[in-house]
User: Fold this.
Amino acid sequence: MPPLVLCAHGTANPAGQQVVLDLLAATRRELPGVRVEAAYVDVQQPGPGEVVAELYEASDPPVIVPLLLSTGYHVEVDIDRVVRAYPGTRATTALGPSPLLADTMVARCTQAGVEPWDAVVFAAAGSSRPQAARDAEQAAALFIERWAGSGDVLLGYGSASSPTIPEAVARLRAGGAQRVAIAAYLLGPGHFHDKLQQAGADLVTAPLGADERLVQQAIARYRSALSSSSSGGVRARAAGE
Assistant:
């Protein structure tokens, strides 16, 4: 079986770093016959090029599964550059959007005490890439289907797109919401999650974290890449969407 590279964004936050390590350990347990390594596109090391180069020399070309929630610059440029540099290497789409991630978002809302009648800001990190916005919109739609609350749900962005998360909170309050919650569509603690605490909401959920459903999603991406007849550099949406 080809090696698997779980490629995360990277963070200086120790708790956020631990989320990736926990996902790495859980994936290794689920795939005992597969070499599974972590890489980071920013902030942390090693980078995906370094990890893939080592694996490329030692075994079959690896499969890169981005531990990213939407298709932004890091997927379309950084990871794609590595795929092109090492023929036979494959990269899947980002983890999201996916019903499994939407189910995890619902669980985080329930754990945080969000009530069905509360207004909710679905808080995505944001990106200047058009596909990232489409992915965030689909992720929010999947969440709304599963949340099935009576309160309004509005998509907000941490950067690059609008409305911003504070703007989304303000709009919901202006529309009559008595209580506003922020559902954090983020992998782990870090800069963006810290900013949510200052956005004016009554509640902020925990990030997705090292949930078993994210492990299932990453493995589904990996297995789909193996079953695909496409060559390196071509990404196919995997099972679990």
User: Anything to note?
Assistant: The chain is about 45% helix and 15% strand. The chain has a mean pLDDT of 93. The domain at 4-96+211-227 is CATH 3.40.50.1400 (Rossmann fold). The longest helix spans residues 130-147.
